[in-house]
């Protein structure tokens, strides 16, 4: 039964990818004004948290790209963004900025990369990771799994519960965190331990937070979009401390705050497809 379910999921995903390729194959021939670009967060904005993009969103993005340039920026690495959006969708974006733009694609092709290890140095990075592991071991929460620290090109992702948790455990931790401020308290301790590293701490998603050099938040990607006169940004974590806050409030962007991908679709249709 389990094998049959996995086979059905695989077949459905392949059918989805074929449909995506058909939806986006004409985009390269279109001429669009570079006055405006629409930039999206991924988790909670284009998809449900850590879920694959749904057909309604795919269709809406396809219509949007007929009129405007479209880009995506996420804190996750490229592999995780592709898991959620699928490769045909990622390749269809004019720009894909993974890890806040420290690993960037243009029309599906890599063009820019920057490393947190090179920025702060290996000795300081090692001390930071060792201290974080110690503080994580002292946190008492109902469930702990694996992959508590994930090193990425432009940032470090820290998860008190561990990124290997199930979706149900994610949902339960998110509620527990809202009540007990697990992530906020851990961030406060790290800020006290490392006041001189010039690091920024940004809560995103359900179970983790990102750590990166100041200035390497999502506004980092804006340096690659200087040719556009108007940049619209959509995100769900637009509150102070959320990983969309800096770019949402930037003078370079017109910010749109949404609670879920359904609100994103409604706003796109209202503002850009009428």
TrEMBL record:
- Which residues participate in Mg(2+) binding? 41, 43, 236, 248, 253
Residues annotated as binding alpha-D-mannose 1-phosphate are 50, 152, 163, 170, 208, 210
Question: What GO terms are given for molecular function?
Answer: metal ion binding; phosphomannomutase activity
Q: Where are the transmembrane segments?
A: none
- Report the subcellular localization: Cytoplasm
Question: Where is this chain primarily localised?
Answer: cytoplasm
Report whether Magnesium shows up as a keyword of the record: yes
What is one term from the GO cellular component aspect held by the record?
cytosol
- Quote any Pfam family the record assigns: PMM
Catalysed reactions listed for this entry: alpha-D-mannose 1-phosphate = D-mannose 6-phosphate
Identify the CDD domains for this entry.
HAD_PMM
The EC designation for this entry is 5.4.2.8
Pathway assignment reads: Nucleotide-sugar biosynthesis; GDP-alpha-D-mannose biosynthesis; alpha-D-mannose 1-phosphate from D-fructose 6-phosphate: step 2/2
Enumerate the cofactors the protein uses.
Mg(2+)
Carries keyword Cytoplasm?
yes
Q: Which InterPro entries match?
A: HAD-like_sf, HAD-SF_hydro_IIB, HAD_sf, PMM, PMM_cap
Q: What does the subunit comment say?
A: Homodimer.
Q: What is this protein called?
A: Phosphomannomutase
In which organism is this protein found? Tetrahymena thermophila (strain SB210)
